[in-house]
Structures are given as C-alpha cells and as structure tokens.
TrEMBL record:
Species name: Arthrobacter echini
CDD domains from the UniProt entry: PCD_DCoH
Protein name: Putative pterin-4-alpha-carbinolamine dehydratase
InterPro entries reported in the protein's UniProt record: Glyas_Bleomycin-R_OHBP_Dase, Glyoxalase_6, PCD_sf, Pterin_deHydtase
Family that this chain belongs to: Belongs to the pterin-4-alpha-carbinolamine dehydratase family.
Keyword presence, DNA repair: no
Amino acid sequence: MSILATHQVLDAGLADWRKLAQALHARFLTRDFATGLALVAAIGDLAEDTDHHPDLVLTYPHVDVKLLSHDAGGVTTRDVELARKISLLAAERGIGADPAAPTVVELALDTADAASIGPFWAALLTGDAHAVDGDDVVDPTGRVPLLWFQHTDRHETPRQRFHLDVWVPHDVANARIDAAVAAGGRIVEDFEAPSFTVLADAEGNRACVCTILER
C-alpha cells in the first residue's frame, strides 16, 4: 500500500485530524475519564475489526489518537478510512475534537559523523544502542522524542548544536509563530515557509516550526 501525498491527505477532508511529520493525529475532548475510557474501548473494538491499530493516549480531559501504517512508513488510505470511522464514533457520542491541539516535537543534532555518535545517543535515550534507523534514533515505545542527525561539515573544534523541530497543524503554524515572536522571539529564516520557519529566542537558541505543506 502506497503512502499518500500531502495533497491527498488534505483533500480527504478529515476535519478532526491533522498530519504532523509522518502520522495523522487527533485530539478528542472527552472532558471526563469515563467518557474517554468508553471511547478508547470503542476504538479498540474498531481496530480489531479492521486489523489496523492506532496509538492511543487516555488522559482525564481528552484522548489523543495517532494513525500510521508502519509497514508502509507513512499515512495510507487505510489510515484515512480508520480516521473517518473514529471521528464517527466520537460524533455519535457527542465528543468534539480540537484539530489545533496536536503537536509533535523532534530533536535535531548537527554532526559530521552520525554513524559514530548514533549508538551513544540511542543508548542514552532508549537504553538500546541499536535503536538507530538511518539518521534517526527511534524509540518504538514512544517514551522520548525522535532524534535525527543533520549532516554538517567536519570541524576542527568539536561542537554540538541541538535544535527543536516543533510540528504543528498547518493551519495554526502562523499563529504559533506569531505567539513566539510576541513572547520575545524572532524569525531567523522563513524562505522555506510554510514547510518550516526558523525561530530564535532572545539568546539565539533556535527552533523550527514545521508543517507538512510543500514537502
């Protein structure tokens, strides 16, 4: 099954859902634990019926859902179809969604030799030095954010430069950027917007606000 292009995901009309990085995300506002637990149980039954299983996070006020076809490495029609069914389950129970809420944070580290430092960071973050997939340190249990290595030229003096990639829904990115600037930040680079915009705080620490658009 092939991965859907960005325009195909947007054209699917999933009002409750937003694609961030590799997966579809939704937050359903259950407002109490019992309602959330019942929704999770219903989604579980649906997942068993369709043999496609989302990641679920149940908290007192909401349920977060993540959909990804792991065998394809991205969002497929299988995810879109299940997303529609989950939204229908929620709507039947009078549960609304907050499509502006989903956020994914990734860590990026500049390096001239990802192969040599990858096992260290994998062991430190996940306890498994082999938890490296290409240029990514991946925690399959979801305990820590993904760490990816950004290739740079080798430097005589070792240096370390981290930055955060903050994935937000494409239709709230400008508001998030405006809020960060209003809070004392500045835009460093926006020539790749809306794909990503580089921001910095007052001390020069950087982060990228990322969306799925124009990728």
